[in-house]
Specification:
This protein is α+β, with helices and mostly antiparallel strands. It is built from seven helices and eight strands. A hairpin with a 5-residue loop joins strand 6 and strand 7. Helix 1 crosses helix 5.
Length: about 220
């Protein structure tokens, strides 16, 4: 148990230092802001080049492609993770992308993920799972469970079931700050992802809630 708590403490300390002095990773979800597929297709080449520059600069950490449509026509859309100092900075970095400048897409959601610490990129469906601590859990018990579950994240990543993991912090009502994690599971559907999350002690013991969203197929980024 001491070893597991030490692992949790070390990761938590490293996370606290890194978030204090550098940028974090923000998950961005886009949505179409047009009914004209032709305008999108005409801008796509320019969009790929501009977005590719963000990838080459190392500002894009993860990218997922999923199916969507414009006025009934099938189109691909992406969710991605961008390096930024805050939500406003993330939006500023995207302001010059051609599709965004022409108001053909809009930012549907921006979420702080924390700092990336694990990565793996097989080409399968990915589901994002966010764990959130419930209130009223004893701090030492949370440390114990966190140590167990962080080891489980590493094991599932090595087994190829988790393709990305991000560490963030959560401030509880009593002022206690604890690490939380966001992971990307390989799963057949959202229910499967929820079932996989039950492998975590925090979920089994009822200490944490889970939120699941479909991300799409993870893309291998080349820089």
């Amino acid at each position: 148990m001491k070893k597991l708590m030490t692992i949790a403490t070390v990761i938590f300390a490293s996370l606290s230092v890194s978030t204090a002095v550098s940028a974090a990773d923000y998950g961005v979800e886009l949505a179409w802001n047009t009914n004209d597929a032709n305008d999108v297709l005409a801008t796509m080449s320019e969009q790929r080049a501009a977005f590719g520059q963000l990838v080459n600069n190392g500002e894009i950490k993860d990218m997922f492609v999923f199916d969507s449509s414009i006025d009934g026509k099938p189109m691909k859309l992406i969710r991605f993770v961008i390096d930024a100092t805050d939500e406003a900075n993330a939006k500023t970095k995207l302001a010059n992308l051609p599709l965004y400048k022409k108001e053909l897409v809009k930012i549907n959601n921006v979420r702080l993920l924390g700092n990336k610490w694990l990565d793996n990129t097989p080409v399968h469906k990915n589901y994002g799972v966010t764990f959130t601590w419930r209130e009223g859990i004893d701090a030492l018990e949370m440390d114990r469970v966190l140590g167990v579950d962080l080891q489980r994240v590493i094991g599932l990543n090595q087994a190829g079931l988790i393709t990305s993991s991000y560490l963030n912090t959560q401030m509880l009502a009593d002022g206690v700050e604890r690490p939380i994690y966001n992971v990307s599971f390989l799963a057949t559907d959202a229910q499967h992802a929820r079932e996989l999350s039950k492998q975590f002690e925090a979920v089994n013991l009822g200490y944490a809630t889970v939120e699941v969203i479909y991300l799409g197929h993870k893309v291998q980024l080349t820089q």
